[in-house]
Design a protein that fits this description.
The protein is of the alpha/beta class and 139 residues long. It contains five helices and four strands; from the N terminus they run H-E-H-E-H-H-E-H-E. Helix 4 runs parallel beside helix 5. 19% of the residues are buried.
C-alpha cells in the first residue's frame, strides 16, 4: 500500500502522512518478527489424537503471530519413544530447543510425565509459561 503525502483535495498533509506511515511501519515490523514458542502437550497414550491436537496447537500459535516448535511432533519421526535411552535423548533435544524459545505454552488439562519434566525445567530456568485449555483458551 502506498501512502500519499497529499490529502484527497491534493494539498500536502504531513500530519496524516506521518501518522499513517508510522502505523504502516509498525504493522510491517510485527509481520517481520515472530517470537518462537515451545508447544508442550501430551504425546504418549493416544498418539494419533495427541499428534492431531499438537498440530492444532501449533496452528493456533501461528495464527497468534508466533513460530511454534513442537519437539514431540519432530523427534518421534526418527527416535523411538518406547526406548528409554532414545526418549531421554528426545527430552534432552527438547530442552536445548526450549532455551531458544521466548515462551512455553502448555496445552490441555492432562499433564503427562514428559510435560511435567518440561514444565519443571521451564520453571527452573524462569521461562515464561502460559497455560491453555484443549479449546485454545488461556487460563
Amino acid at each position: 500500500m502506498s501512502i500519499s503525502k497529499y490529502n484527497s483535495e491534493g494539498y500536502p498533509d504531513p500530519t496524516a502522512f506521518g501518522a499513517l506511515s508510522s502505523i504502516e511501519n509498525e504493522a510491517r515490523a510485527l509481520r517481520a518478527f515472530r517470537p518462537i514458542v515451545y508447544i508442550c502437550s501430551p504425546f504418549a497414550g493416544d498418539i494419533e489424537k495427541n499428534v492431531a491436537a499438537a498440530r492444532a496447537y501449533s496452528r493456533f500459535a501461528v495464527e497468534q503471530g508466533y513460530i511454534p516448535i513442537a519437539p514431540h511432533l519432530l523427534f518421534p519421526q526418527f527416535l523411538n519413544d518406547t526406548d528409554q535411552k532414545e526418549r531421554e535423548l528426545g527430552l534432552f533435544f527438547g530442552n536445548a530447543i526450549m532455551s531458544k524459545c521466548s515462551e512455553v505454552w502448555v496445552f490441555g488439562s492432562h499433564i503427562s510425565s514428559g510435560m511435567e519434566a518440561e514444565i519443571k525445567r521451564a520453571k527452573w530456568k524462569n521461562y515464561r509459561l502460559r497455560y491453555f485449555t484443549e479449546n485454545l483458551e488461556e487460563v
